[in-house]
Design goal:
globular, nucleoside diphosphate kinase activity, binds magnesium ion, about 150 residues, binds guanosine-5'-triphosphate
Length: about 150
Amino acid sequence: LERTFIAIKPDGVQRGLISEIMSRFERKGFKLVAIKITVPSKDFAQKHYHDLKTRAFFDVLCDVFSSGPVIAMVWEGEGVIKYGRKLIGATDPQKSEPGTIRGDLAVVVGRNIIHGSDGPETAKDEINLWFKPEELVNYSSNAEKWLYGVN
Ligand code: GTP
Ligand code: MG
């Protein structure tokens, strides 16, 4: 099954939204296979967001991202990369639909509380950046046969 990297940013953690955000992924039917709480260094933030290094907001983005604890997670499930982005909503919370995480819980683009991988390649790269292989837990959940059906 597909896997994606999801991070609750320092603003999401400080605002007490960890369980609110996690429950949306969990109730959808996605499976948590790795999780840690960590304060990323600025250097690490720059690695994580390296695609954006030419953007004007890059330095501020990396400052905010390294300003406090982040919840780093890997979620697994059919279509989780694309659908995870749907659950998260548009980058700018002013444009995110109600019902999405950013639409319901955030107001401005620089404080949009959550990150999600934007494609299969970035998902693989980000999971490798944040987790050692042995930190990913392979297990089957009882719900899977009800979520996906068997035979
Ligand atoms: P992530 O899931 O965090 O990667 O967001 P995204 O994929 O929806 O957007 P993108 O990768 O383009 O940008 C990464 C992050 O940079 C966003 O989540 C915002 O926090 C921040 N960002 C993007 N555009 C702007 C901007 O115009 N101004 C500011 N201040 N921040 C921005
Ligand atoms: Mg992005």
